[in-house]
Amino acid sequence: MFDNLSGRLATVVKTLRGHARLTEDNIKDAMREVRMALLEADVALPVVKTFIDHVRQRAIGEEVMGSLTPGQAVIGVVHDELKKLMGEQNDALNLAAVPPAIVLMAGLQGAGKTTTTGKLAKRLKEEQRKKVMVVSCDVYRPAAIEQLKTLAGQIGVEWFASDPSQAPVDIAVAALDYAKRHFFDVLIVDTAGRLAIDEAMMAEIKALHARLNPIETLFVVDAMQGQDAVNTAKAFNETLPLTGVILTKMDGDARGGAALSVRHVTGKPIKFIGVGEKVGGLEPFHPERMASRILG
Ligand code: GDP
Prior knowledge:
Bound molecules: guanosine-5'-diphosphate
Largest sheet: 8 strands, mixed
Number of strands: 8
């Protein structure tokens, strides 16, 4: 993850540090390199443009030119702008609702929704001592319902037995009713995913959202999909009032573009990242740490 981007930025950093004084030409060259590095990392073009504009404006300003170590100062600006791009600080999960707090999981098939539902349930149970129930509304894939059952058993959280002959909204309502009666703190609702966005899928998840009125609507997306991840996030965000994004498979060799673009394109924070197939592989997303990691 980010290996190539980090490598390319390290070269820019080295060049900048080598100058006792910077000229506008030095900065122009450096910005050209940064731009190439970001495009190669699959960062969305409008994001690259905005980012470079911000860095350039600050780099030719007093903050950098008047600094005793201008090379270092430009790097500070790049770090700062990377952090800003990703949202400054971690946005925690919001569970401030009359219990049970409902978390609706959305995304395409294979994004990692079901796995992430389990991971999230585990975190909430172990770190926040919440009484958690999970339910699957994927009536099209009984295997997905079973997968969630297995995960819930592994983690030790309650699994609501969905009846695939029922409509997804009816399953969710039955689960909610049960969760209320048994004083659950959190209900995580896993939903069906399709291979591509289609109207039926969107209508179904919109209906679920309208009926459940969840405090969190999280879009789960595979970081390895690069620009496509960002485009799907944008499409979902236009249909559903998302409250956050979870980027999965950040342990893989994704080039990193999705992590850098999603916030800017959707305006929604990345709340967590998936870093492995196991149930422990979910971490809160920290823009500051990610920016430092990118700059090496
Ligand atoms: P869903 O169709 O969206 O519910 O996706 P699944 O939860 O079934 O996940 C699809 C595949 O991605 C499975 O093989 C998961 O083990 C894998 N997966 C999910 N999240 C991660 C992650 O963060 N890292 C890695 N390496 N694999 C993941």
